Structures are given as C-alpha cells and as structure tokens.
C-alpha cells in the first residue's frame, strides 16, 4: 500500500473514532470549533487511546499505536492535508517514505483525477465527498 492510501485509511479511522465517541460531532472541524469556544482543551485524549493536540488551524491526532494523523482546516471547515503530513504519518508508523514530497503530491493529484480527492488549494488535498 502506498503512503497516501495508508494516510487516508488512518484519517478514516480517526474520523470513525471521533464519531463513535462523540456522535453529535459533524466532523473533525467541529472539534476545532469546540476548542476555539473553550469547550475542549488544547490537547487531550478523545477516547479509545486517540490523542489530539490543536495547532494553529489544524489538529494532530495520535492513534493508540503512535500513528500521527495531522490535518488542517480551511476557513469553511474543510479537512485538508499536504504531502508533508503524509510523510510525517509514514515516519510515525516506522516506515521510511519511498517517495519525495513532490512525488507524494503527484500521487495525490492522480487521486484527484480519479475523483477520490479534491485540491481546493494548490498542494492541499481533501477527500472528495
């Protein structure tokens, strides 16, 4: 499995965990809104060993096995990631990425052309809905 696919699976796991533990949350961006309204701490554990740490306009999620899934949120609440975040994820699961940042971005763009991802801003990708 390539690094991008592995990242997308991990992001899906994070979303699933958040939805199981907080059924009223519409998406990961809702967590950022809760943090900004002081309903959540800057960092902590959501449940099932899933840790979180808000930063700027994003959040780093750390799964129980240590996998790091970092996402950013655009103003409209869209979850986005870039090739650096994919590489960071790969390194957190003890797998040296086989592709450069540029190559990872090209893999993402190929998924855009397949309709699986969108590229709302240059170099930033989101799962197509």
The main sheet comes to: 5 strands, antiparallel
Query: Judging from the principal axes of the Cα atoms, what is the shape?
Result: globular
Q: Strand portion, in percent?
A: 25-35%
> Overall mean pLDDT score?
92
Adjacency order of strands in the biggest sheet:
1-2-3-4-5
Q: Please tally the β strands and state the result.
A: 7
Q: What series of H and E elements makes up the topology?
A: HHEEEEEHHEE
Give the termini distance in whole angstroms: 22 Å
Radius of gyration: 14 Å
Low-confidence stretches: none
Number of helical regions: 4
Helix content: 25-40%
Secondary structure category: alpha+beta
Oligomer category? single chain
Notes on the protein architecture:
By secondary structure, the chain is of the alpha+beta class. It has four helices and seven strands. The protein has helices spanning 3-21, 28-36, 83-92, 101-113; strands spanning 43-47, 50-55, 58-62, 68-73, 79-80, 117-121, 124-127. The chain has a five-stranded antiparallel β-sheet with strand order 1-2-3-4-5. The protein has a two-stranded antiparallel ribbon with strand order 6-7. A hairpin with a 5-residue loop joins strand 4 (68-73) and strand 5. Helix 1 packs across helix 3 (83-92) and helix 3 packs across helix 4 (101-113). The radius of gyration is 14 Å and the shape is globular. The mean pLDDT is 92.
Write the layout of secondary structure elements.
Blueprint: H1 3-21, H2 28-36, E1 43-47, E2 50-55, E3 58-62, E4 68-73, E5 79-80, H3 83-92, H4 101-113, E6 117-121, E7 124-127
Antiparallel strand pairs: 1-2, 2-3, 3-4, 4-5, 6-7
Helix pairs in contact: 1-3, 3-4
């Amino acid at each position: 499995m390539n690094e991008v696919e592995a990242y997308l699976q991990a992001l899906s796991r994070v979303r699933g965990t958040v939805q199981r533990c907080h059924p009223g949350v519409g998406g990961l961006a809702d967590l950022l809104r809760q943090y900004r309204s002081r309903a959540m701490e800057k960092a902590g554990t959501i449940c099932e060993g899933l840790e979180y740490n808000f930063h700027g306009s994003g959040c780093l999620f750390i799964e129980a096995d240590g996998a790091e899934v970092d996402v950013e949120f655009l103003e409209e609440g869209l979850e986005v990631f870039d090739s650096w975040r994919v590489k960071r994820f790969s390194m957190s699961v003890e797998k040296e990425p086989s592709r450069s940042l540029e190559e990872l971005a090209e893999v993402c763009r190929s998924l855009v052309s397949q309709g699986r991802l969108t590229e709302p801003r240059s170099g930033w990708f989101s799962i197509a809905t």
